[in-house]
Design brief:
Number of helices: 13
Number of strands: 21
Distance between the termini: 30 Å
Low-confidence stretches: none
Strand order of the largest sheet: 14-11-13-12-18-19-16-21
Largest sheet: 8 strands, antiparallel
Structural class: alpha+beta
Bound molecules: flavin-adenine dinucleotide
Helix content: 25-40%
Shape: globular
Mean pLDDT: 96
Radius of gyration: 22 Å
Amino acid sequence: MPDEIAAGLSEVIADRSRVLTTPAVLDRLSHDFYWYSPILRGQLAKKMGDVALQPINVDEVLAVLRFAGQHEIPVTARGAGTGNYGQCVPLQGGIVLDLSLMDKLEEITADGVAVCQPGLRLGALETEARKHGWELRMYPSTLAKASVGGFLGGGSGGIGSVAHGQLRDFDNVRAFEVVTMEERPRVVLHEGAAVHEILHAWGTNGILTRIWLALAPAVEWTQMTAAFDSYLAAFRFTQSIAVDGAWSKRLATVFEWPIPSFFTPVRRVTRDGKALVLIMIANSQAEALRTAIEAAGGEVTFAGEYVGPRTQPLLSDYTWNHTTLWAMKADPAYTYLQCGFSPTTCEEQFRLLRERYGDEILFHIEFMKNGENVVAPGAIPVVRFTTEERLNDMIAYCRSIGVFVANPHVNYLEDAGRFRADNIQLRAKQRYDPRGLLNPGKMISFRREEPAK
Ligand SMILES: Cc1cc2nc3c(=O)[nH]c(=O)nc-3n(C[C@H](O)[C@H](O)[C@H](O)COP(=O)(O)OP(=O)(O)OC[C@H]3O[C@@H](n4cnc5c(N)ncnc54)[C@H](O)[C@@H]3O)c2cc1C
C-alpha cells in the first residue's frame, strides 16, 4: 500500500492499535472457513487485504468509507470470519473492515427486540436475552463466535429455524442502519421489507452498523438424542415431530450412519450402525417425546437440559455445518452440499441419489420452516470429494430431481443460493456502491457504470 494511503488511514482511525498491517494478522482477518470447499481452498488461500481497520463507532465507519471511496480502495466487511463460502475473503485486496469491536448490546425492548451493533456475538446475545426472558429465534451452530452483523450479512438460519424460519422470514430482522459507499457515504435506515435489499448480500451493498433483531420468548429446553435402526425410520419419526405444531422444538436433526461415528467427543450418545436423531424439545414435552421415540422403535441415548451456550455437551455443536467439520476431521476427503429436499417427495429424492451416488453422499437433515409456514427437510449432506466434475455432476443431478442446492463451492452470491430473483440486492448495490468497491467480485451480476465520455 502506498505510504500516502497508509498515512491517510491513520488519520481516519486515530488509534494506531486499530490499524493492522502485520502479515500474519492480515492473513487471519482475510480468511474464513472457505477451506471447507476443496474448490475454494485453491482459489482463496492467497487472497489478502492490504490493511485491516477496526472501527469502534459509526462515525469511524463513515470516515473509512469516505476515505476508501476517495482513493477507490475496496472494502470488505468482516464479523467473526466463520462464513463457509469465503464471503469475507477480499478478492481484490484493500481494506478489511473488522467490525468485532462494535459489539454493544444497546437494549432488549419490552416486546423482545434486540438493538445492537453488528460485532455483538450471537452467543453473548443469547445469554443476555435469556436473562430477560427472551432467546434468539435462530442461530448458526457457530453461536459462540459468530457476530450478529455477519449472520445477517452471510448466514441464513440454523437452530430455531424449525420453528421460526430463516432470517429472511417472518420479520425476524426488523430493521438496520447501513452505511453506504456513495460519493458521500451516509447512514440509511432499512425497515420492514426494505431489509431484504441488504440482508444476505455478503457486505456487497452496504455496511450494517446498527441492528434490530426480533427475539422469541425463552423456553426451557431439553436436548435429546435417539438411535434408530435405519435412516428412513429416523427420518420419518423426526419429520412427524418437525411438522407437528403441537411439539415445541428448536432443533430437529437426522444423521445417517456413519455420520454419528464422526462425533468422537459424544460417541456415547451414538449406537454403532444406527441413524441418530437430535431434537431440542421443550422440557415440558420431554417425557412425551421419549414415549413417542420408544413407540416408534427408537432408543433414547441421551437427554439433558440446555442451559445456554455453555451447556455441556452442547449438542448443537454437531448439527448444521458443524456436522461437516466433524466429517472432515474423520476424513479430509469429505466435503458437503447445502440442499433443500421436497417435503412431499423427499424419500424418492433420497432413493434416486443413493442409487446414483451410493455412499458418496451421506444424508444429514435439518428440518426448517419456510416463509409459507411449511416445515421442510433442509439438508447439509456430507459428500465424498473426488473431482470437481463429479461434484458439479451431483449438484446438477440434485437440481434435475427438484432438490434445491445453494452451491457452497462458489464464491459469489448468484449461485450460492440466496440471490433474489427480484434483483433488489443488485439494485441496492447500484445505488449504494456504484463504483463496486464493497467486497468486489462477490456479486457477479453487478457492472460498474463508466461515466459517459
Ligand atoms: C462450523 C460452521 C457451522 C455453521 N453453521 C451455520 C448455520 O447453522 N447457519 C448459517 O446460516 N450459517 C452457518 N455457518 C456460516 C457462518 O458461521 C454464519 O453464517 C455466521 O453467522 C457468520 O457470522 P460471522 O460473524 O462469522 O460473519 P463473517 O464470516 O465475518 O461474514 C459473513 C459475511 O457477512 C459480511 N458482513 C460481516 N459483517 C457485516 C456487516 N456489519 N455489514 C455488512 N456485511 C457484513 C461479510 O463481508 C461476509 O460476506 C457455519 C459455518 C461454520 C464454519
